[in-house]
Amino acid sequence: xxxxxxxxxxxxxxxxxxxxxxxxxxxxxxxxxxxxxxxxxxxxxxxxxxxxxxxxxxxxxxxxxxxxxxxxxxxxxxxxxxxxxxxxxxxxxx
Length: 94
Description:
The protein has one helix spanning 16-20, and strands at residues 11-13, 26-28, 31-38, 47-50, 79-86, 92-93.
């Protein structure tokens, strides 16, 4: 996993300095990747891993620069899904 660009913002905030300076609210997210691999049919055989402890704070264009490994049996485990979630809200980012 190298990087992501233009993830959806999950948090909006504005501090008093920014408000006095006439700036709008800044939007952020605390993304982390979630990997799921399986056959796409039997949910009981899905392998899943999440890297929540290494979420990148306040970043909509994160550079993860990490390697992830999941066990898979091909061709049975053909479906790989990569999703990004926000650490604070535990919701999926688009």
